[in-house]
Amino acid sequence: MHRPAWDPRRKRWRAVLTYKTPDGRTGRHEVVAVNQADCLRKLNAAKEQVAKYGTPVTNNPTVAAFAARWLAEVAAETHTPNAYDAARASVNHQIVPTIGKRRIQTLLPSHVTAMRKTLEAPGFAGDGKTLSASVVKHAHSTLNRICDYAVAERVIPDNPARKAERTRQASQPTTTERQALTSDQLLAVIRASIARGDVFGILTVFKALTGLRQSEALGATLADLQLDAERTTVNGETLSFGAYTVNWQLQDLRREHGCGNPPDDPNEAWRCGYRRHGWCPEATWRVPSWYEKRQLKGALHLVRPKMSKIGKVVPLIPQLTELLRLWAAATKDQPNPHGLLFHHADGTPVIPKLDDRAWLETIHAAEVINDATLEAIKGKGGPTLRSMGLTGHISRHTLVTLLGELEVPTAIISRIVRHTDERTTDGYRHPHVAELTTGMGRLAAVIPTLAIEPPKPSE
Q: What secondary structure, in 3-state letters, does 159-196 show?
């Protein structure tokens, strides 16, 4: 019933609104009034609330309803897209299934503690699996932010999540063991990548010798590259270093409907005629108003990197500097409308999926994995690079490990790879660029002079 109708038993006008809840279920909201006009007004108000918050607003909402309101009013504007997705996942997959039906004004610290114990119980994640401690902690932190907002809005007098007991999980074995390549394996990967000579090969060397995250390397721009930035002396020899300033990273952003309120029936199409938000002609990007982005192609954007306030200048050892010089010269005549350092021959950006595929081919060519492992990874139901701890991110771990073996101070390594948590360093001092270059100079001394052939840009 989506229009007011007279209820002879209750002698009131009544309407029922059906909508899709934030966790994907079908919800029902009833409005009742003495006259038809008031009933219609309440119904339209509920529709507007569903469009804005994902659920109608009441004086004593459920935890699920208020969490949806917090996502729409607070998280959507204050969180980055990735942080918003993580908060929404905590709401939909941990908070709502455990305490979502409870009225927020009746929520007690004991209920929050019970939620944690439920999440920590074996089997909650399905197939007998247990949620990781970080997932449980994030769910509690998200609920804490939701309750803080409820206090600010005077919905509840105090925050029960802040007073709840934070149980401590026992250490759990991880399915993915983090590891690093040996120095011999690293050199083999670099040689195999140079032998490829294409954009994926040069990209792999760039990541391996800078420690950049995949998104940061894919979003690298020519404007941020300096090929003659610093000179330093290593073992009596003066070396010329380049530098790269990490200002952007590549990210796939999501859209949402921009054509108005959602349909009364959650199974019906929106006003634009489509159910999927990506197909809406008036779709908008789901990012906060302050979020800086540059659209490249479709959903691919350049956005600011993680914790950009941390030191962003990465020294480039002479071997890598020379390789990038040759690469820039080989690709200078190709279309490059976005000024990317790594792009296809038509100027379009390199996507993570293709980079992952090339990485698998490269570590096989470098004999890091054998033929049997390669076939098992490509087959259905077999191991994955992630489960084996061999994703491209291993090059970042390898660089950190190698610099540590070369006795580069932890504070210098932390700045080179831009770790956000300074508690991992030996101190809180801030090294200068010259010190970073000296640290990378020790790496340059152990990387042999490579036979670099002119790169072969993809056609």
A: CHHHHCCCCCCCCCCCCCCCCCCCHHHHHHHHHHHHHH
Kindly report the pTM of this predicted structure: 0.71
Q: 269-279: buried (b, 16+ CB within 10 Å) or exposed (e) per residue? A: ebebeeeebee
pLDDT digits (tens, 9 = 90+) for 76-100: 999 999 999 999 999 999 999 999 9
Which of 456, 450, 453 lies closest to 190 in space, CA to CA? 450
Domain boundaries, the chain: 5-163, 183-249+312-446, 254-298
Q: How far apart are CA 119 and CA 137, in angstroms?
A: 10
Instruction: State yes or no: pLDDT of 175 exceeds 60.
Output: no
- Asked if 145 and 121 touch (Cβ cutoff 8 Å), the reply is no
Torsion of CA 146, 151, 157, 160, to 10 degrees: 30
Task: Provide the total of helices (H) and of strands (E) in the chain, helices listed first.
Answer: 17, 11
CA distance linking residue 384 with residue 376, whole number of Å? 8
Contact 43, 31 (CB under 8 A): yes
Query: What would the CATH number be for the domain defined by 183-249+312-446?
Result: 1.10.443.10
- Architecture of the domain whose range is 5-163: Orthogonal Bundle (1.10)
For the beta carbon of residue 259, count every other beta carbon within 10 angstroms. 17
Q: And the tokens for 455?
A: 């790169």
Whole-angstrom distance, CA of residue 334 vs CA of residue 344: 9
Tell me: pLDDT of 53 over 60. Answer: yes
Give the whole-angstrom CA distance, residue 224 versus residue 222.
5
pLDDT tens-digit map of 281-317: 888 888 888 888 999 999 999 998 866 544 578 888 8
Q: Are strands 26-33 and 12-20 parallel, antiparallel or unpaired?
A: antiparallel
What is d(CA 359, CA 352) in angstroms, rounded to the nearest whole number? 10
Closest CA relative to residue 218, chosen from 329, 359, 85, 322: 359
159 within 8 A of 144, measured Cβ to Cβ:
yes
Of 105, 25, 117, nearest to 58 (Cα)?
A: 105
429 contacts: CB under 8 Å, gap ≥ 6 = 411
Interatomic CA distance for residues 244 and 312, integer angstroms: 8
Alpha helices in 14-167 (DSSP H): 36-53, 63-70, 76-78, 81-90, 96-99, 109-120, 133-152, 160-163
130 CB burial (10 A radius; 0-12, 13-18, 19+):
middle
Helical (H) or strand (E) element with 356: helix 352-365
